[in-house]
Design brief:
The protein has 337 residues and is mainly α. Helix content is 68%, strand content 4%. The chain has 13 helices and 3 strands, in the order αααααβββαααααααα. A 3-stranded mixed sheet has the order 1-3-2. Helix 2 crosses helix 5 and helix 7 packs across helix 9. The longest helix is centred in the C-terminal third of the chain and has 44 residues.
Length: 337
């Protein structure tokens, strides 16, 4: 446990440093799924490691040890974690859980607001045109989702560029990109080291929609021009929208569209899968070591009770066999008074 419990932290740091650089050069769709898997695994590893480290300190509280029937002295002798590390882990874990709760509340409120706005739009078609001179274009997730475009945005684009813009926003709805965004926001709330990963994920989603629009329109230059013009036109718009053609790093997106489509690369994905496997295996190993440590502490407490009982009159209810029952399902024993 001394080393394995810290491996998830190291894996998170490595992915946070490397993933933003690699994801921008990979095919957007598999990159988005890979980032989602990385966020889930590393967030779980972060919480699990903090919980194991915090438990080593909490388990040494006499009242907790009495409830668990294990020896505090044996636990302290076998526990390799400093008390200050355990205390800090408990504080960070509590803060992470509170942050996750706040982020979850905000996310639910945002989804509810999106559904209300979607239901309040006129008409029942996929496209809703706002009578507004402010250039706006975004996808509004719902059941079903809607594409919202203002007349000001439509006047800024040509016919082929309008088609590219609608194809981009339609790709957001078809790919259910709002679920990816929600996942990254929640995991980043739980594990603050994942915030750069969440920002990269938002950019990758825009690239995913760009590539889908280019495939549908059949002209990458048209999509690049639509993205650039829409971004310039809406530079002064104040309405926030997560799933919008103007999101992400627009110059990088335009350069990517003017270049050939990204080729398939398997090595980065394999390396990332290996790191996530190491993260899961290390956390499982740390949990196993923690369980073994507690089991040994329970046996030590039983030995103390046996020694105390040997010098006292036999009690059929609290004799040696009563306190030394097996702690694992695989162990067999019988109670003999």
């Amino acid at each position: 446990m001394l080393i394995s419990v810290y491996v998830p932290f190291a894996v998170t740091a490595v992915l946070t440093l490397l993933a933003p650089r690699l994801a921008q050069r990979l095919t957007p769709r598999p990159a988005a799924w890979s980032l989602a898997c990385a966020a889930l695994v590393t967030a779980a590893g972060w919480a699990g490691s903090l919980a194991l480290l915090a438990f080593t300190g909490i388990a040494q509280i006499p009242q907790v040890a009495a409830e668990g029937h294990w020896s505090v002295a044996a636990l302290r002798a076998e526990d390799p974690v400093y008390a200050v590390v355990a205390a800090a882990s408990a504080v960070v874990l509590a803060a992470s859980v509170v942050s996750l709760g706040v982020a979850s509340f905000r996310q639910v409120r945002q989804v509810a607001r999106a559904r209300r706005e979607c239901a309040g739009l006129r008409g029942d078609t996929e496209l809703a045109v706002l009578d507004d001179d402010t250039p706006l274009a975004f996808a509004l997730p719902g059941t079903p989702g809607r594409i919202v475009v203002s007349r000001g945005m439509l006047r800024c684009l040509g016919d082929d560029e309008r088609e590219a813009l609608l194809a981009h926003e339609r790709a957001h709805l078809r790919g259910r990109h709002h679920l990816f965004l929600s996942l990254w926001r929640l995991t980043a709330a739980l594990n603050p080291l994942l915030r750069p990963l969440a920002d990269t994920g938002a950019f990758v989603l825009e690239r995913w929609a760009d590539e889908d629009a280019a495939a549908q329109v059949g002209d990458r230059v048209v999509v690049a021009r639509a993205v650039g013009r829409a971004a310039l036109a809406s530079a002064g718009a104040s309405r926030p929208a997560s799933l919008a053609v103007t999101g992400g790093e627009v110059p990088q997106r335009v350069r990517a569209l003017l270049a050939p489509p990204p080729g398939g690369r398997s090595l980065p994905f394999l390396a990332g899968a290996l790191l996530l496997t190491v993260c899961c295996a290390s956390l499982a190993n740390a949990a196993s070591d923690s369980d073994r440590m507690v089991d040994n502490a329970k046996r030590a407490q039983c030995a103390v009770r046996v020694g105390a009982a040997s010098t006292a009159p036999t009690d059929h209810r609290h004799g040696p066999a009563f306190c030394c029952r097996p702690h694992h399902r695989g162990e067999r024993g019988e109670h003999r008074p």
